[in-house]
Design a protein that fits this description.
59% of the residues lie in helices and 14% in strands. The chain is of the alpha+beta class. A hairpin with a 5-residue loop joins β2 and β3.
Length: 101
Amino acid sequence: MLSIQDALEAVEGRWKLLILFSLSEKPKRFKEISREVKGITDKTLSKELKSLETNKLVRREVFSTFPPTVEYSITGHGLSLGKVLDELHFWGLLHRSIVLT
């Protein structure tokens, strides 16, 4: 039970898995993630990115440009959720087809 509880705490909430799914394609800047993850506020996105970073699922990289450029990428540890994200994606497609018909 403890392992499942730890996993759920790391990816809990409405947004974290969507953010990880967005970053699984390629590294992105804050506004790119914000545009892809429909409905999330900037404040919530910032909080969720910090949580994902704390759990070592996302890396934040600051480039020395003016103004500073910040880019987020999924870590190797975050990529280890790939099968989970894929299964959720496919299950979601099936679920939509059943519920919306």
